[in-house]
Design brief:
By secondary structure, this protein is an all-alpha fold. The protein has five helices and no strands.
């Protein structure tokens, strides 16, 4: 199933390309767009390398240079480099989340003292709570993935199996909780 990931990345990149920046776009939008392009590029490289390594490990890429000891070394390099690109994506997601947090706090400080109607204020609070929940879910998931990407980006690894399991469980639990929330 993961072999199809390039199609999702292509769609993501296409959406980013076709969504125009507003005339006179603020620094925030420009920064977020640049981060998104970095993430698209990192994920495309990750997916291409991972797919190649996976197909080679299953004997699908059974041409010269993909078999024997040479092929095994190439596969190992591709697995490691794919995880490094995944780590780049996770790092850029941290930048994106940090920028969102910074600009959100700045907007809140600038907006103090501006009186809205009670109904608009209630809707605004609900929207902020929803945005905060999504932000925290993304932040926790990203913090769980960060050590895993570093672990798999070096051939020897840096954390033990228990930590790999725990961090994977945290990221999975966050995703499950959000999916559960959407179905309830």
């Amino acid at each position: 199933m993961r072999l199809w990931g390039l199609f999702g990345i292509y769609s993501w990149g296409r959406r980013t390309w076709t969504t125009p920046l507003a005339a006179g776009a603020e620094r925030k939008e420009k920064l977020l767009r640049a981060v998104t392009w970095g993430q698209v590029a990192a994920c495309a490289a990750y997916q291409a390398l991972e797919n190649g390594a996976y197909l080679a490990s299953k004997g699908v890429l059974n041409t010269a240079g993909w078999s024997g000891e040479v092929g095994a070394k190439r596969q190992a390099r591709w697995w490691v480099w794919s995880c490094r690109f995944w780590a780049a994506h996770v790092g850029l997601e941290g930048v994106r989340l940090g920028a969102l947090w910074y600009y959100r706090r700045r907007e809140e400080e600038e907006g103090r003292g501006v009186g809205d109607g009670e109904k608009e204020e209630k809707l605004s609070r609900e929207e902020r709570r929803k945005e905060d929940r999504i932000w925290w879910c993304n932040a926790v998931s990203n913090m769980a993935y960060a050590p895993l990407t570093v672990h798999w980006s070096v051939e020897e690894g840096v954390v033990g199996d228990a930590w790999v399991g725990f961090l994977g469980m945290v990221a999975g639990a966050v995703a499950l909780r959000e999916e559960w929330r959407h179905t309830a």
